[in-house]
Design goal:
2 helices; mainly alpha; 64 residues
């Protein structure tokens, strides 16, 4: 019977932290796309420069 110790060689190669990073990257991609679609739908009158400025601000906030 195990006493709670384990052999690290039996653990999978990918760590939990790698999975968390992958999940964050997927969510960031989804957030970027959702932001782009929202701007397109609700603010079609703004020009490309304003869109890029808003996108840049959004990405800065997302990284905090």
């Amino acid at each position: 019977m195990s006493d709670g110790n384990f052999n690290r060689a039996l653990l999978p190669k990918n760590e939990l932290s790698a999975g968390i990073r992958a999940g964050k990257a997927q969510m960031r991609t989804k957030a970027e796309r959702a932001f782009e679609l929202t701007i397109e739908q609700h603010m079609p009158q703004i020009d490309q420069e304003q869109r890029e400025q808003m996108y840049h601000t959004f990405m800065q906030l997302l990284r905090k």
